[in-house]
Design a protein that fits this description.
600 residues, alpha+beta, 7-stranded antiparallel β-sheet, 5-stranded mixed β-sheet, 16 helices, binds 2-oxoglutaric acid, binds fe (ii) ion, IPNS-like_FE2OG_OXY, Oxoglu/Fe-dep_dioxygenase_dom, HAD_sf
Length: 600
């Protein structure tokens, strides 16, 4: 590392001077030794919420290379670094001192500098020139090798969350993957970070100079640094605490730096849409976090990984204006992307079928026990003394939220005579379902659904339905034919416990998430739609969040194909776009696309 080798302060801190001239409370020494087996990691996470993770030689080499490249970046002149400053329309990049959110408003604003990597695609900001290339190369090599260590932790968490094979599925929602890599530099003065727990599943922290402290049973422990990168610190985050019902507690930590210090931090988050609600155990931490998010967003919804990260980051950012400033120039942090406004005129619309498309409704006594594992929620309601249960397909709420955020109207077109009651029950659970117009079609004849008759004909329409033939022939080109969602069949596959059955369940659990970007990108074509009044679309991605729940990898080939088909560079595609049809893309769209995974 550029600034010379620090002394590893293993177990040796009494008091130290912190940046703003105060004396910090003594932190106890920590004498745990590094481990690598998932059994040892699981045991440590259960008892303390953190441990030291032994690194392989490949991981050490990659960590060293990254420390060196990060130091070269931080050492460079401000003007050059500013060229790589974070921009709201892109991801990651450089954040100057003073931009770090303050988790505790009574603490000073931190003077930490940050270079963040949240995407390996074109939308990631990288510094220019050779030093920029070196940083990119070092960060990507580090991410490549860090996955092996991540797997050890995922296995450990799997054993905590799903000790038996039968309960294995419960852990899958937590299939944590890297979501953000931070290269931090703490100057001596004002370089501290206020106490917090991380919002994701777990975090790796590499520190060659001590400074990281973890609170265990109310006492702060100062953690050992690793001057030779032989180990890193593993911290459990909020998502794991919530989902495990408190079996693992998130590690509350802070930074108290008494010397200039660089650290490398890698967050691993659950899928954006993973609902963090525990199935068993203590739900008080989850409930409190959910209430905080409901209050913050002014809307009620189950707490997903994305919602939790956004809530915590946005609230921390607000603290900066109230906190004591120790840094001379504080530029406002990037906005988190309020829902874009749509211009007046005709809005695009997405029409959803209900049964077997976004939900499966059954009489409550027919719902299989496994339904909770095969849906994002099971919502019950009563009509004429009969109790019904709706298994809501995983990813439905996130899809509705994303569409609304894009300014897309949503309507339901269903043959279920209880369509209104269903939407009322869903609206009580989460207000993204409130006020959705419901069109109940009494006939189950082929072609009984018709956009024109229902007054839903717009210049941009997507129909999401498991049955193509339910629609009149002229509307079928707008139908995105959904894979049929059937919790009873899925419960059968789950219990079969064969590779084939598992694969079917896996496909189902990732299905809506895998097609979401493709569906949303259909509404991105305002630029090439020759309608003057086509709804323009700032889109939720236009404002890249300061910290996102999931790492964005490069687009999959299927997405690239779709983009190309709809892109202005493809004149054929563009000319057809007066009323954009999905049918040309159905081959691609109806297959799950590995969004968030580089399948190339
Ligand atoms: O720099 C460190 O050691 C820890 C940073 C941290 O806690 C964070 O980025 O969440
Ligand atoms: Fe942290």
């Amino acid at each position: 590392m550029g600034r010379g080798c620090p002394n590893a302060l293993r177990g040796s801190c009494a008091t130290a001077s912190i940046g703003h001239g105060l004396q910090m409370a003594a932190a106890d020494a920590d004498d745990a030794s590094p481990c690598r087996s998932s059994a040892a990691v699981a045991a440590a996470l259960r008892t303390r919420g953190y441990c030291y993770l032994q690194l392989s030689s490949a991981e050490r080499r990659a960590t060293k290379k990254l420390f060196d490249a990060a130091a070269a970046f931080h050492d460079a002149d401000e003007g050059w670094k500013a060229l790589a400053q974070h921009q709201p329309t892109k991801r990651g990049g450089y954040y100057k001192a003073g931009e770090e959110p303050t988790y505790d408003q009574s603490d000073p604003v931190s003077g930490v500098e940050d270079f963040s990597v949240v995407s390996t695609g074109d939308d990631q900001i990288w510094p220019e020139g050779e030093r920029g290339d070196a940083l990119q190369d070092a960060a990507l090599s580090y991410l490549d090798v860090a996955d092996a260590a991540g797997q050890v932790v995922r296995d450990a968490l799997g054993s905590v969350l799903a000790p038996t094979k039968k309960r294995r599925r419960r852990a899958e929602a937590l299939e944590a993957t890297p979501s953000m890599l931070r290269l931090l530099r703490y100057p001596v003065a004002g370089g501290d970070l206020s106490a917090h727990s991380d919002f994701e599943c777990f975090t790796f922290v590499h520190q060659r100079v001590a400074g990281l402290e973890v609170q265990v049973d109310g006492v702060w422990r100062r953690l050992a640094a690793s001057a030779d990168d032989s180990h890193c610190v593993l911290l459990a985050g909020d998502a794991v605490e919530y989902v495990s019902g408190g079996a693992v507690r998130a590690a509350r930590h802070r930074v108290r730096s008494s010397a200039p210090r660089d650290s490398i931090v890698l967050f691993h988050a659950a899928a954006d849409d993973a609902v963090l609600e525990p199935r068993a155990g203590d739900r008080s931490a989850y409930d409190a976090a959910r209430r905080a998010a409901d209050e913050h967003f002014g809307s009620a919804a189950p707490l997903t990984q994305r919602r939790h990260v956004r809530c915590r980051v946005e609230r921390a950012e607000k603290n900066n204006s109230k906190a004591i400033s120790t840094v001379p120039t504080v530029s406002p942090p990037a906005a988190m992307g309020d829902p874009p406004t749509t211009p007046s005129g005709e809005r695009p619309i997405a029409a959803f079928d209900l049964d077997h498309t976004i939900l499966h409704m059954l009489a409550a006594n027919h719902v299989p026990d496994e339904a909770k594992e095969l849906s994002e929620d099971v919502v019950t309601f009563e009509v004429n003394d009969v109790e019904y249960a709706i298994s809501v397909r995983v990813g439905t709420t996130a899809l509705f939220e994303a569409l609304r955020k894009k300014g897309v109207d949503i309507a339901v077109v269903t043959c279920n005579l209880m369509g209104d009651e269903i939407l009322t029950a869903l609206g009580e659970r989460c207000d993204v379902f409130e006020d959705v117009p419901v069109h109940v079609i009494e006939s189950r004849e082929k072609g009984a659904k018709c956009l024109k008759t229902l007054g839903l004909k717009r210049s941009k329409v997507v129909i999401f339905d498991d049955s193509l033939n339910a629609w009149v022939p002229e509307d079928q080109e707008f139908v995105f034919e959904a894979l049929r969602y059937d919790v009873q069949a899925l419960a059968g596959f789950l219990n079969e416990d064969t590779d084939e059955g598992d694969a079917k369940v896996d496909t189902e659990l990732g299905y809506l998430t895998s097609i979401r970007e493709s569906l949303l990108s259909f509404f991105d074509v305002a630029k090439i739609d020759f309608d003057d009044d086509a709804a323009s679309d700032a889109g939720s991605e236009a404002q890249a969040p300061r910290r996102s729940a999931s790492f964005s990898l490069e687009q999959s080939p299927a997405q690239r194909d779709l983009k190309r088909a709809l892109s202005a560079e493809d004149p054929g595609g563009a000319k057809k776009a007066k009323i954009q049809s999905l049918s040309d893309n159905n081959v691609t769209l109806n297959k799950p696309v590995a969004v968030g995974q580089d399948s190339s």
